[in-house]
Amino acid sequence: MTQWTDYTTGERIKLLRGPDMTQEQLAEASGLSVATIRKAELNLGGSLQTLLRISAALHTDVSVVLGQQAPRRAMHGADRAMMRELSLAVHDTAAGVGVDVQPPRPAELAAGLAAAWEAYRSGDYVGAGAHVAPALREAAATWKAAPVDQESAAAGILADAYRLAAYVANQFGARDLAYAGIGHAQHQADRAGDTIRSAMVASGRSWIYVRDARLDQAEETARISYESIEPRYGDRDLGALATYGWHVTFAAVVAARQGDVDGADDLLSQGLAVAARMGRDVMVNGTAFGPATVTAQAIGIAVSTGRPGKALSLFQTIGDTSSLTPSARNRMMLDVALAQAETRQSDTALDTLLEVCSTAPGWARHQGLPGVIAQKASAGSATTAKLRKLSSILGTSVIIN
Which of 132, 248, 315, 332 would bridge 116 by S-S if both were Cys, CB 3.0 to 4.6 A apart? Predict the structure, then answer.
């Protein structure tokens, strides 16, 4: 039986297009030329921007086009078990099922959520889900039992738990669960009356829209999220600055995905200015922001807007990256590898890619970029041995015939 990974990228595009959509219709929906669509379906290459536009027009994630996940994601046994528990936790707690129990001590709840966020930031999404499912039940029980004067604080903690549950679901392509989780997070953030948490939830929803190829909604939601928390001139509160900086930088990422280079650069300049005011990276509500973080994002924006040389120049200036979470650093290095492939440094690109995938294989198999980079590198002078090693790590063929 032919597996989804057995098809070439061009064949997958054609299969996803199906008999009811012509190449001309796909070209119109994606804003690309018919010649570009034909070239892509013949597996004759294509830039990341092209694949992103095609995947958006096909209403799917780019990792499906690249074969790193099937149209309905096939998961490992541990993934499926975790996702079932996470789904039960999200839906049960929202319905009030199983929350009439003795809540944990505050320190225990805090430790459980901290472990979940730490696993997520390290790129261990299965571990994050395994931690957040019980923490979500505990947070719901805590909110249910909270006295009136503590309800807002308990609702804020519950909002954080739902938001992380949505993030994990989104990483596994479980869009319905991601939307449910982020919706419950918004409800609890509203109960908490916390503007910062509401903005974090809005940014999370925008990211889900991005992964669901709903770029117009992603752009609008991202704009709402950063405008709602714009700091006053002279504001020196690091938490407020970091939250705003992250949100305006994420809006730049969304604009870049939309192909709005000027808009992305303008928003990014605001993020860079905030980071300069801060002087260092800080962590707020599970998200880091500062000079290193915004530069890492700038590298990704430069690559996705067709400026690989600028991306590599930015990488040379980033300096100390110890403040980046493991997943943020890994993502940055994938962007660097893609920039190297785009500038015809095929073997160097594969070396960078192999280093990332060897260090974090579990994280890498949830990403779409390794397939893009491998395709670019295989069109150049990359060695077959490196491509075979990469295929072994990712568990899917990346060798282009």
Answer: 132
